[in-house]
Design brief:
Layout lengths: L8 H11 L12 E5 L2 E4 L4 E3 L3 H4 L8 H13 L11 H13 L14 H16 L4 E2 L10 H6 L17 E2 L18
Parallel strand pairs: 4-5
Antiparallel strand pairs: 1-2, 2-3
Length: 190
């Protein structure tokens, strides 16, 4: 069954401001109704070219037939098991393919996460465990995500970090506004 809503842009803007916090911003005041390939349409039927592509993660476009087919086949096979409970072949095959193409010498292994912030946090955990060295260097202006360690690594204070400190320790970054010469400083929060 396809659920169709017939709300206007103004009604949806009202819903958004009533039920969704301001902390999650949308760059454009557009409510998408549907998308196909590199195009999307708002609820009034206006057509846009989607240059953002979910911030670079939709490079095959919306509703690509091979993606739709693979998703449908997987949903019919099993919806979700959590890999930590029982593993499954598609995860193992994807790990194998990524290890085969990753330009890294020697033995490799792959692990998958749901978000970029989760991947960044786990990369730091793995690096710390492997090296025994806790400190991480990040760069001014960098963006690494919205969870606390990823946010600690994020160099841009506005709008991501304001009022959310204290941040994780052992993050070394450089910036002009911080007396400790850090743009994501664990000491002063700037
Ligand atoms: C470079 C970079 N790292 C991390 C993230 C965080 O990803 P997510 O929003 O999926 O947690 C993003 C998201 O835009 C990103 O661009």
């Amino acid at each position: 069954m396809t659920v169709r809503h017939q709300s206007t842009e103004a009604e949806l803007a009202e819903l958004r401001s009533t039920y969704v916090p301001r902390g999650i911003t949308s760059a454009h005041p557009v409510t998408v109704d549907r998308a196909k390939g590199s195009e999307l349409w708002d609820v009034s039927g206006k057509r846009y070219i989607d240059f953002a592509g979910g911030i670079g993660v939709m490079n095959v476009g919306h509703s690509h037939p091979r993606v739709m087919k693979a998703v449908q086949e997987q949903l019919e096979r099993a919806t979700h098991t959590s890999f930590q409970v029982v593993h499954y072949e598609s995860y193992l095959r994807l790990a194998q393919r990524i290890c085969e193409v990753a330009p890294i010498d020697g033995p490799k292994k792959a692990i998958f996460f749901s978000t970029g912030a989760e991947a960044v946090e786990n990369a730091v955990k793995i690096a710390r465990a492997a090296t025994g060295r806790p400190a991480v260097v990040s760069f001014q202006g960098a963006f690494h995500g919205r969870t606390l360690l990823a946010l600690s690594l994020t160099g841009s204070v506005q709008p991501y970090k304001q009022d959310f400190g204290p941040y994780a320790a052992e993050i070394l970054a450089r910036g002009a506004s911080c007396p400790h010469r850090s743009s994501s400083c664990a000491s002063c929060g700037r």
